[in-house]
Amino acid sequence: MMNGRTESVRRIQCLALASGRQKLILHVAGVEMQLTAAASFLTVLQEESVSIHTYAHSFLQVILLHLEHRDTGVSNAWLETLLSVIEVLPKETLRHEILNPLVSKAQLSQTVQSRLVSCKILGKLTNKFDAHTIKREILPLVKSLCQDVEYEVRSCMCRQLENIAQGIGTELTKSVVLPELIELSRDEGSSVRLAAFETLVNLLDIFDTDDRSQTILPLVKSFCEKSFKADESILISLSFHLGKLCHGLYGIFTPDQHLRFLEFYKKLCTLGLQQENGHNENQIPTQILEQEKKYISVRKNCAYNFPAMIVFVDPKNFHMELYSTFFCLCHDPEVPVRYTIAICFYEVSKLLNSGVYLIHKELITLLQDESLEVLDALIDHLPEILELMSTGGESSVQENKLLSLPDLIPALTAAEQRAAASLKWRTHEKLLQKYACLPHVISSDQIYYRFLQRMFTIMMTNNVLPVQKAASRTLCIFLRYNRKQEQRHEVIQKLIEQLGQGKSYWNRLRFLDTCECIIEIFSKSFFCKYFFLPVIELTHDPVANVRMKLCCLLPKVKSTLKIPADKHLLQQLEMCVRKLLCQEKDKDVLAIVKRTVLELDRMEMSMDAFQKKFYEKDLLDQEKEREELLLLEMEQLEKEKQQNDGRPMSDKTFEKKRRDTKTPAALPKSLPVAVAGPSSGTSSTSKEIKKSKLIRSQSFNNQAFHAKYGNLDKCTSKSSAAAYTPSVSAKTSVISLTDNSFRTRNANSVPASFSPNTPLPSTSRGTGNSADAKSSGKDAQPRKATLKSRKSNP
């Protein structure tokens, strides 16, 4: 069908270019050919296939000839083409070919269709002529059509008055257009009155304060009073334009008028819900259904205009004036109304500012809504909403308001489960992506116990790939901002054992996806320490798809290495690539291996010292690494503080103290990156230094949680970067401490699936040369994770 239509377009274009023949062809053409011809003529204009002069000479008369075609669809198609042509035609052509014939076409003796076409053409011509020509030649036609005997013509001309007013200026609008609008607003036809009202609302900005207060406000007041007695379609339009009306008339209402207008809005918000708005006994079911649809549209429009009404009453008066209305809209029985208020929820939260706590319960209500459409509309701005609610509050007390909202976490988990149980996987994917904001607003423990395990479950059991990848990335962000070393250790071990060494090849593919996210979100040293060896071990995977995906990831894996510290890792990577190149039997995998080898050879290695070409990337990686080290330091200092105080610090208390500490504009540039070990001097264990470190760590934690997931400041000076470039031994000291603490954690807290003696694969940089590693008596060489050969379980 499309090929036939395209061919018709080409044929019409060719025929149209043959001067004089198109009239004969279109005269006998059917509806389909007429519609194709109108679209073709418009295409010729838009593509500038011919000059404007040639177009006017060859095409314009054909377009004008078919404006009054007996088929309404064909007539409208040719009219749309003509309105586009008017934009580019010169004034003289417009005057002689269009405006002059329009005088006769707009007369009462012509057909209704001819007069309707004249109304629309006049609205378009106004912007093409000067004020004198408009006043002398166009406005008399406009007045005549506004007084037409047919209500359809009056309504059509009324809707064109907005375009005409913008073309003739303020003075002529007040003297010519406004009187016509006032008269049309009292017309006997409801469609004419509605058109006059909508045009007045759209032209409010043109009129001054006197016109608004003395002329327009009484008309609006009368229109609102009569709207309930008129057709419900008028109420639909009135409710839709209510916000614009409030904005345009703001400041001229008396207190009584302000109150009456607000009460009118509240009444519209519950239209059809109250007993007095019930149905008459004489109405038949079809009429009842139509009336219900109109009532739903009115309430939906009221929800759309709710932010404007908050401005109208002032956010300070929200609780007293509009909260009950907001409650009704959030609990409306119809999905379109709740969907619309969910879309507006973020705007409402911004307007309320410190009063956002008032709508906590409504947020929970919408999160628990039975309709996934409502949930989908709400989660578009869920991170911003939760951040506003976590920082806003009734008083100046620096306390996370979400901690006093116990229903939030159950509502979030229930929302995810409902999305997972449905067939709307895009909503589920979006929700998981938005969950990445949770480190902003709730504690690390709450995320670990209520959300992290769920991310694992989705990654391993869900059948939709985009959903699995969204869960994987969100899990990485949860891990990035987790404040407890023991929990981080368990998550890393679980990723390696259940995904990287999983029996199903699908899980191993997801492990590679997760590693790609880790490379992006974490520092290079973190990836090399925990995930480098498990990744390259997959070069021996029995499933070709896993090896293919690994080959595509190898360039990113190599980019995490720094020379000379990671020379031994580079050697292992090259050895694995050589084995693939020599031993691979699958031709598809081999082809990818060859391309990967060429790409790896072209890559330039990053050095331990800063290089000019990698300066920004190295600086960003150093920021990530320093944040990771400070998280470890913060936990260590917190443990020491709890031991000294003799009592544990609750998560809530710590969050409060963390927020009480002012966040610096940037991280301290001379901050040490190593945690002081037990062999440090006595001065390093003094209470004053520990206190300062704790405050500094808390400040970092505050800043890290409010960073946009790794978008760190890239403008730090080179000298500052050099100031805290850690030495190899310093890095080794911290990483060794971290690894030892992982191995000696309490076995009682380990899940049954984890063995407390199972070490994580560690590839600490510089361990072979570290004095600390040698003195510890432990094997300082990198430990290679052994993976048993396994059969795939697709």
Automatic annotation (TrEMBL):
<dbReference type="GO" id="GO:0005737">
    <property type="term" value="C:cytoplasm"/>
</dbReference>
<feature type="repeat" description="HEAT">
    <location>
        <begin position="138"/>
        <end position="175"/>
    </location>
</feature>
<keyword id="KW-0597">Phosphoprotein</keyword>
<dbReference type="InterPro" id="IPR011989">
    <property type="entry name" value="ARM-like"/>
</dbReference>
<dbReference type="InterPro" id="IPR039918">
    <property type="entry name" value="PPP4R4"/>
</dbReference>
<comment type="function">
    <text>Putative regulatory subunit of serine/threonine-protein phosphatase 4.</text>
</comment>
<keyword id="KW-0677">Repeat</keyword>
<dbReference type="InterPro" id="IPR021133">
    <property type="entry name" value="HEAT_type_2"/>
</dbReference>
<keyword id="KW-0175">Coiled coil</keyword>
<feature type="compositionally biased region" description="Polar residues">
    <location>
        <begin position="745"/>
        <end position="773"/>
    </location>
</feature>
<comment type="subunit">
    <text>Serine/threonine-protein phosphatase 4 (PP4) occurs in different assemblies of the catalytic and one or more regulatory subunits. Component of the PP4 complex PPP4C-PPP4R4.</text>
</comment>
<feature type="repeat" description="HEAT">
    <location>
        <begin position="177"/>
        <end position="215"/>
    </location>
</feature>
<keyword id="KW-0963">Cytoplasm</keyword>
<feature type="region of interest" description="Disordered">
    <location>
        <begin position="638"/>
        <end position="691"/>
    </location>
</feature>
<feature type="compositionally biased region" description="Basic and acidic residues">
    <location>
        <begin position="638"/>
        <end position="662"/>
    </location>
</feature>
<feature type="compositionally biased region" description="Basic residues">
    <location>
        <begin position="785"/>
        <end position="794"/>
    </location>
</feature>
<dbReference type="InterPro" id="IPR016024">
    <property type="entry name" value="ARM-type_fold"/>
</dbReference>
<protein>
    <recommendedName>
        <fullName>Serine/threonine-protein phosphatase 4 regulatory subunit 4</fullName>
    </recommendedName>
</protein>
<feature type="region of interest" description="Disordered">
    <location>
        <begin position="745"/>
        <end position="794"/>
    </location>
</feature>
